[in-house]
Every structure is written in C-alpha cells, then in structure tokens.
Amino acid sequence: MPLAEACAPHMNSARTRTANAKNHGEMLLTLFSFFVFFGLGFLAHLAEVRWPLRSYDTPKSWMIDTLGFGVATAATIASRIAFPHIFDRLPTLPGLHWMTTASHFVSAEIPWPVAFVVSVILLDFLLYVGHRLLHTSALWHTHAAHHSVEHMYWFAGSRASPVHIMVQLAMGTLLGLVWPVAGGMHAIVASTIFYAVIQHFNHANIRWRLGTLEWLFVMPRYHFVHHGAARRLNDSNFGFVLTIWDRMFGTYTDPDDVPENFPLGLEYDVGLGRMFIGVAPRAPLPDAVSAD
Fold first, then answer.
1. I need a surface site. Which of 20, 65, 234, 251 has the fewest CB within 10 A?
2. What does residue 52 show for φ and ψ, rounded to 5 degrees?
3. Is the pTM of this model over 0.90?
4. Distance of CA 232 to CAs 1, 65, 225, 291, Å?
5. Average pLDDT of span 26-43
C-alpha cells in the first residue's frame, strides 16, 4: 500500500482538527473584534457627551447606521473569503516573484512592532489613494452611503456599500503580500484595537485638539470637513491617520478656514436601497455633484 494512502486516515483527521481549531480561532477573533468595536464605541459616546464638537437639531440615524453596519460586515466577510483566492496568486505571476521575496524578508528580519508601525504609514497612503478613487465619477455612488451621514457620531462611520468595503480591504490585502506583520495574536490584537480607535475617533463628535501635532494626525474636525455636503469640502481631507498625504497632493482643507456648522451629508436625495447597493439615484444629479 502506498505510504500516502496508508497515512490518509491520520492526515484527514489532522486536517479536521486543524480546520476545527482554525474555525474556533476565527470565531473567537470575531467575538473579540465586536467587543472591541462596541466597547470603544461606548467610550467614544461618553467622550461625545462630555466634549461635543457641534450640536445637532436632528437625531442620530441609528436604524440607517445599523443597516450600514450590517452591509459593511457582510461585505467584509465576503471579501475575506474571496480575496485570498484572488490576491494570493499575484506573487506567482511573471514579474511579481519579488513580492514573495519581500514578504519573507519582512517576516524574518523586521520585528513585528516595527513592521506594524511601517504598515500603518504604508496602508494609510494606500487608503488615501483608494479613498480618492472612490470620489471619482466612476465610483462615487458606491461611496455615497458613507457620505450620507448628516449627524456625525462614532457609529455613523459604519455606513458603507460593499464596493466601498472591498476597495479598502483590497488595499490592506495588497500591502500584506509584500509587508506582512508577522506578530501572531499580538499583531492581530494591536491592529484590531488601533483601527477601531481610528474608525470611531475620526467620525466621533468630539472637539479634542492636539495643537501642533494636528499638522500630522487626523482629528475629528479635520474629517468632519471631508463629510461636508459641499463638493469643495468632501473632495478634500481624504487621510485616515495622517494629514501628510492631503498636504503633499493638494487636497488639504484647513478646518479653521471652514465656517462653523457647515452642512453635512449629500446635496441630493437617494433611496436607501440604491445608496447601499452603490448606484446613482433615479433623478439627475445637480451639475456641481455630477461634474468630475
């Protein structure tokens, strides 16, 4: 009997145990991610109550934001299932073998905390590029759901269409092929907490200031400008963590140069279904919106 066939029952059992362990680990990671997301969200809510950036006449749109969170979660799960089958083949293509070499070097030679800090900077640039792509005429309607928020608070940043989510996750997946953060569970925990903080903080109704450090780091008032209804505002301040990309590429708008309580949201109406699917409204868009 061939050795492989003789060992087949044992190997299948091992695969089953490995698969079960992997599924269990992914379930725990998912539960941890939800705990971090809503736990930090509660802290952000307390900060919003204590230090509000602006007051609103309209209530929070909890139902729409919950729907948006569900759409974003489903798109994230689908992307994490599909992307490995798509992107993992890239390093095997002609001319792209260097990606494997780079990945092995980073994993073996770069301490994971250093790799993590560098990955934050690199990913922030890629997300800036992806964010600007979402603001082109070809992709704007897949991003409009995120900009439909008229009452900014920590949970409002969860509104997104599937394409919006896929573009962002594609950037992270591409970076991971050449610059992995091989820190095991420590890296996963650090990344989960860090990006949950950024997600909540950027959209939170908090008036905190950092003084001269605001030249480098994104603050809520900076990101609020990006959610302004006027095109000249929402076509600026694309950064997530750092403001340097906007300053370098001419898309920076100083929050001090914008009138207080400028309108947020969209300058046109679109149904929820079309908005979350990511297609244009039935009615023609205003010229100021449709122009590229």
1. 20
2. -70, 140
3. no
4. 73, 25, 10, 12
5. 90
**Three-class secondary structure of residue 10 per DSSP:** helix
Half-sphere exposure of 238 (CA within 13 A, CB side): 26
Three-class secondary structure of residue 288 per DSSP: helix
**Confidence band for 258, pLDDT divided at 50, 70 and 90:** very high
Cα angle for residues 27, 24, 174 (degrees, 5° grid):
65
Task: Report, in this order, helix, strand and coil percent for the chain, each rounded to 5.
Answer: 65, 0, 30
Structure tokens at 1: 């009997």
Task: Please tell me the distance from the alpha carbon of residue 77 to that of residue 269, in angstroms, as a whole number.
Answer: 29
Nearest to 272 by CA among 140, 159, 164: 159
Residue pLDDT, tens place only, 131-165:
999 999 999 999 999 999 999 999 999 999 999 99
Asked if residue 255 lies in contact with residue 226, where contact means CB atoms within 8 angstroms, the answer is no
Type of residue found at 103: S
161 burial level (CB within 10 Å; 0-12, 13-18, 19+): buried
Q: Which residues pair with 217 in a beta bridge?
A: 242
pLDDT value of position 28: 82
CA atoms within 13 A on the CB side of 69: 15
Q: Give the tens place of pLDDT for each residue, 110-127.
A: 999 999 999 999 999 999
